[in-house]
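A quick aside before the break. I want you to see a complete sequence-to-structure record at least once, exactly as it would be stored in a machine-readable document. Don't worry about memorizing anything.
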Amino acid sequence: MNLLKLKKEVYKANIKLYLSGLVTSTFGNVSGIDREKSLVAIKPSGVAYKKLTYKDIVLVDLEGNKVEGKLNPSSDTKTHLELYKNFSGIGGVAHTHSIYATAWAQAKKAIPCLGTTHADFFYGEIPCTRVISDRCIIEDYELETGKLIVDAFKSVDYHYMKAVLIACHGPFCWGENAEESVKISIALEEIAKIALYSIIINPQLGNIKKSLLEKHYLRKHGKDAYYGQEKSNK
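That is the input. The structure line, written in tokens, reads:
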């Protein structure tokens, strides 16, 4: 991919995240990767979205070295890089402190799959990591946060579960590119909100039955998916 194109795509994804209402102040960030060049484009740290331009987007290599840009990359860069290194099929990562998803993260609870709205986007419960240790906080906080995510996915396929909650922190989402990672973040927030209200109404709720989960997830994301229109008809 042309690196200028990548920077513009990551810029647009960051603005979309801001306009979605999922971020406050300078909270949150979106990145995208050029796998052939092993370079990541990411929002600069602490820059207000209203002042952000595509020229501000920073390029770093997979070791975190700045390759292009006058500003410092996001303070969460090492977390993004750890995901790119371990989840080879992803092309974009988004991080927010959105209200409902963050509430679940602060409660240190996975978001249960209670209905078909959830199942349309995520194959099962949205996992929550364990709480980061003091040693990891001191040693390399952002890198260790990424390792927490990777550890939480030892028995979870990141292709079918494109979101995670960092205990006491907030959500990370990913997709085939920066734009999709934002779309997943928006869906996650709605699902987190619906789950909260559902449990308030009925605290005894359990996860959706597997047959219904599989029907809704696979009709949109399975190899024989039939949801939506053929590309040729769009």
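Two observations worth writing down. The mean pLDDT is 95. The first strand starts at residue 29 and ends at 34. We'll return to this after the break.
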